[in-house]
Amino acid sequence: MTIAAVDRALKMLEMLSGEPAGIDLGALAERLDLPASATHRLLTTFAERGFVAQDPASGAYALTLKLSLLAFRNLDLRHLPDAGQIVLDRLAQATGEYCRLAVVEGENLVWIARSQGATAGLRYEPPMGSEIVLHATATGKAWLASLPEDEALRIVCARGFQAEGRTGPNAVTGVEALRSHLAETRRRGFALAVEEGEIGTVAMATTFRSALGAEAPIAGTLSVAGPAARMQAERHGAIADALQRAAAEMSEIWPLRRRQSSSLHNPSLNGRPNPLLQTGTLA
């Protein structure tokens, strides 16, 4: 299979992931700018492997849950959500808002866990499968501010400031504005996005490290988000304090995730039985 064919296949998966009700062959071929025959061959291959199914009534093609199964399997093997869910739940309870954990993956951030702290009134709960727009979210700006400025600007400029309707009315639209936002984030100690990622919402975020100590690399971010009517300026100080406490806790437990993963994949340690497996604590 050529690189071009792989690229077409991946684009098809991305396109189908945004169509839960499915899409017909003609419309999919048009969006992908492919002949209907080539589109049908790709769909047939995905269907044979169990990734795509065709609705017998409408004829529309849609993703099955197999892709989700693979994603969850990958997360489980890394033990990523388990390592931070308790900290995330505690943050949600302390702030009464929607909290998320994202990890650094190359030059991107990926959501891996969430916790809803709102118990009454408006509840903000966006989908976990959405791509993080780095320059227009508190999560993205928190991470970008931790990088050398030239590197942060390079990453954003390579993607561009146009995010196809995935930003709010206050999203930054140029290099100088982004530079100013990142400088303010570093000075303040947390990132703030007021109707930047989405209209009517406010989010705050901070980074956490892969271990305690300023020399440890950034592992990911923690964020708190909610309706603008509730996430007003007078609450920012208390939420920022809760974020900092949670980030310190996350940095403290993050190395345990690696040791846990290693232990679960090695029945013995230095020739001795693995006590974690023996006691059944993590089995």
Shape: globular
SS class: alpha+beta
> Rounded to an integer, what's the Rg over CA atoms?
21 Å
Ends apart, CA distance between termini: 40 Å
Task: Give your account of this protein's structure.
With 283 residues, the protein is α+β, with helices and mostly antiparallel strands. It contains ten helices and nine strands. The strands form three sheets. Strands 4-3-7-6-5 form a five-stranded antiparallel sheet, with helices on both faces. Strands 1-2 form a two-stranded antiparallel ribbon. A two-stranded antiparallel sheet has the order 8-9. A hairpin with a 2-residue loop joins strand 8 and strand 9. Mean pLDDT is 85; it is low at 260-283.
Keywords, separated by commas or semicolons:
disordered C terminus, five-stranded antiparallel sheet, two-stranded antiparallel ribbon, 283 residues, 9 strands
Write the layout of secondary structure elements.
Elements: H1 3-17, H2 25-32, H3 36-48, E1 52-54, E2 61-63, H4 66-78, H5 80-95, E3 98-105, E4 108-116, H6 138-146, H7 149-159, H8 175-188, E5 191-194, E6 201-209, E7 218-227, H9 233-264, E8 268-269, E9 272-273, H10 275-279
Antiparallel strand pairs: 1-2, 3-4, 3-7, 5-6, 6-7, 8-9
